[in-house]
Design brief:
The protein has 360 residues and is an alpha+beta fold. The protein has two domains: 3-65 and 85-208, no CATH class; 219-256 and 279-352, no CATH class. It contains 13 helices and twelve strands. It has helices at residues 11-19, 97-111, 118-124, 147-150, 178-181, 194-208, 219-226, 232-239, 247-251, 297-309, 311-317, 327-331, 338-353, and strands at 3-7, 23-29, 35-39, 67-74, 80-83, 90-95, 128-132, 162-166, 170-175, 190-191, 258-264, 269-276. A hairpin with a 4-residue loop joins strand 11 and strand 12. The radius of gyration is 23 Å and the shape is globular. The mean pLDDT is 93. The structure holds iron/sulfur cluster (2 copies).
């Protein structure tokens, strides 16, 4: 991967260059501590941020919209069906390494197997990703981030077109694809020196020390979940704390579930839409006729963590379905985000597995 250096003052020049080709999405401050991804316009371009708390609402909605029209149909004397519109060419500027890995996870799910999802593909085809490495310990990294545990950050190793890293008084920009490297033709980029690369290594070494979770703690839980070694009582303990709000799935950059429904939009006009769904919600597993094989909340929590951590899915998707963004910790009123659940499963199961010697 080639790298170049550019002055910090050139950040908006890069944003503007991207805007010549793409609708550019970038992080902004909202109200209070709130942050969000939004479209860059002439009016707000000077407010684009790169060091900012990661928005709660992940950028996955730009490839998997919360509500997406699949087709429209008109029912009168001449019924007709209209396919969905093309998606805009988009660039996400300032996407974090965890969210870059999240989009890669969605790619493997929606495009990586026998059936390619045409709706996802039309959003993903022309998507350009500008990853920003989290280097500011006060603004970029918070106590709930555990990308190092998920092996997705703080610097993404792949699945971006360009990657920007703040070296202090200039930016190091790495090209992950030919499309990204084409931007290096612009005069704002100059060749770096070995000193830039050693500064990069040093910053990453320092930043890694700022994470509360620096090692992977999934392993035993993957074994317990895959081997169905977790007791019903432990799942009940977790399920009893779930308020069934669905927030953990909606905020999760790797959750893929949706439902499909039709709605009337005019006297003879209807549309078919797909909408994010969440395994926490009571109706998620309800079947036609009303039978629900996972009626109890703890059965549906069991399903969520089985889906994220069981060996079968890891083999199929080449990673656990968690990128360590920490959003489920922040949004969960029951305090059952990923790390807490892993800890509960690990402790409870290790204790029940322990075979103490008996002296007699
Ligand atoms: S965010 Fe917490 S309370 Fe809400 S559905 Fe998820 S686990 Fe349950
Ligand atoms: S499970 Fe939680 S920490 Fe992991 S990717 Fe999803 S929201 Fe982020």
């Amino acid at each position: 991967m080639r790298a170049r250096v550019t002055d910090k003052a050139n950040l908006l020049t890069l944003v503007d260059l991207l805007r010549e080709e793409y609708e550019v999405i970038a992080p902004f401050y909202g109200r209070g501590r709130d942050t969000c991804f939004d479209t860059v316009t002439d009016a707000n371009r000077h407010l684009v941020q790169i060091h900012i708390p990661n928005p709660y609402y992940p950028p996955k909605r730009y490839v998997l919209p919360h509500i997406e029209r699949l087709l429209r149909f008109h029912l009168n004397d001449h019924p007709r069906i209209q396919p969905c519109e093309e998606a805009p060419r988009r660039a996400i500027f300032g996407i974090r390494s965890c969210d870059t890995a999240g989009i890669n996870h969605l790619d493997r799910f929606y495009l990586g197997r026998d059936f390619r999802d045409a709706y996802y593909e039309r959003h993903r085809r022309d998507l350009f990703l500008v990853n920003v490495v989290c280097t500011d310990p006060d603004l970029d990294i918070d106590d709930d981030c555990f990308c190092m545990c998920a092996d997705t950050g703080p610097a993404a190793r792949d699945h971006f077109d360009l990657q920007i890293m703040d070296l202090g008084n200039e930016f190091l920009v790495v090209a992950g694809t030919e499309k990204g490297e084409a931007y290096f033709a612009h005069p704002m980029f100059r060749k770096g020196t070995p000193a830039h690369l050693s500064r990069r290594r040093q910053i990453l070494t320092d930043v890694r020390k700022r994470f509360k979770v620096a090692t992977s703690w999934y392993a035993s839980t993957v074994r317990y979940i895959t081997g169905e070694l977790i007791s019903e009582g432990t799942w009940e303990q977790i399920g009893n704390r779930c308020l069934e709000c669905g927030g953990c799935s909606y905020m999760c950059p790797t959750c893929t579930c949706f439902t499909v429904t039709e709605r009337q939009v005019g006297p003879a006009d209807y549309e078919r839409v797909r909408i994010w769904d969440a395994c926490a919600l009571g109706g998620f597993t309800r079947m036609a006729g009303g039978f629900n094989p996972r009626k109890a909340a703890h059965d549906r929590r069991n399903r969520r963590f089985f889906r994220k951590l069981a060996h079968y899915f890891i083999q199929r998707e080449l990673s656990v379905a968690c990128v360590g963004c920490g959003r489920c910790i922040e949004v969960c009123h029951g305090d059952i985000g990923m790390p807490n659940v892993v800890e509960t499963l690990r402790r409870a199961t290790a204790e029940s597995e322990r075979h103490e010697p008996v002296a007699h």
